[in-house]
Amino acid sequence: MWCKDNNLHLNVEKTKEIVVDFRREHTQHAPLSIDGAAVERVSSTKFLGVHISEDLSWNNNTASLAKKAQQRLYFLRKLRRARVPAPIMHTFYRGTIENILTSCITVWYGACTVSCCKTLQRILRAAEKIIGVSLPSLMDIYNSCLTRKAIRIAGDPTHPSHSLFSLLPSGRRLRSLRDKTSRLKNSFFHQAVRKLNSLPVLPLLPPLPPATDSARTHPFSI
Length: 222
Fold this sequence. Notes:
Blueprint: H1 2-5, E1 16-17, E2 33-34, E3 37-38, E4 40-41, E5 44-47, E6 50-53, H2 59-81, H3 86-101, H4 105-108, H5 114-131, H6 138-154, H7 182-185, H8 188-197, H9 213-217
Helix pairs in contact: 2-3, 2-5, 3-5, 6-8
């Protein structure tokens, strides 16, 4: 009904349903239907280049990234056999391999298992040996991207999640976010707040706007 009122048409064939349920008791979820047509329920789907699973693990996403990156290592080896200078190979690596390994890295790297991180890091080390120069690790790239994105959100009062980066009365640290599970603790916003608090000097952040009734009802959206 909302879609009809706002002139939005949903394509049922392109719509997928994922049920994320971590309750201990098994619950039977009713199938989702749109205009009488059943929506396909899947355990994993690809959204904006990221593979999202119903258990919120990143194994499928890691396997997909590793497969793409390994295929491009072949071209890097061909360049080395052709005696291409190291700076050119480094540029090729950043444009064809690193951008794959670090695609949406702030979303999934913090919650990746050690095995997944090692799988991607091995590809990076293989490229490092082929080029013959030292390359930044995935952890360094992740920390850099996490810091930049956190500062950007915290410094933008119009961002939907800006309210999560609130200063303590002292003005020296951000208010920590509550978490009861390691899954939530390793999510982007929790790690972003901890990352900013670990900086030697907290970047200047604008004050929060006064809270409204709608803000209390919907604190943030992604």
